């Protein structure tokens, strides 16, 4: 059997070679090159982290926090650069979810 670390490194290289990965990389470069898109992306990350911190501490986001995320989502939908970035992330996410399911299947079986 091949060394498990070699398999993991091969998987990393295979992921980087995926067209979906390359599309996300290109879309991220476009976000970074556009000041408006980058600013909106950073604003989104701050709001997302705030909500995640609230949830992790057992609190529910306030209606204002939820409205802020909705407004940011609307702005992102209207920004073609960020919309492409999210769309490409979702396509890559399909692979990530499938890989996660496959990799963790033996561990889940042990827990049953």
Keywords:
single chain, 112 residues, mainly alpha, YheA-like fold, 5 helices
Per-chain topology:
Blueprint: H1 4-17, H2 19-33, H3 35-56, H4 63-78, H5 80-111
Task: Describe the protein in words.
This protein is an all-alpha fold. The protein has one domain: YheA-like fold (Up-down Bundle), CATH 1.20.1500.10. The chain is 88% helix and 0% strand. The protein contains five helices and no strands. Belongs to the UPF0342 family.
> How many separate domains?
1
* Count of helical stretches: 5
The residue fraction in helices comes out at: over 70%
CATH domain class name: Mainly Alpha
What best-fitting shape do the alpha-carbon axes yield? flat
Order of helices and strands: HHHHH
Overall SS class: mainly alpha
CATH superfamily: YheA/YmcA-like
> Which topology does CATH recognise?
YheA-like fold
Mean pLDDT: 94
Main β-sheet description:
none
Strand content of the residues, in percent?
Answer: under 5%
Distance from first to last alpha carbon: 26 Å
* DSSP, total strands: 0
Label the CATH architecture: Up-down Bundle
Estimated radius of gyration: 18 Å
> Segments where pLDDT lies below 50 for 5+ residues?
none
In a nutshell, what does this entry contain?
This protein has helices at 4-17, 19-33, 35-56, 63-78, 80-111. It is built from 5 helices and no strands.
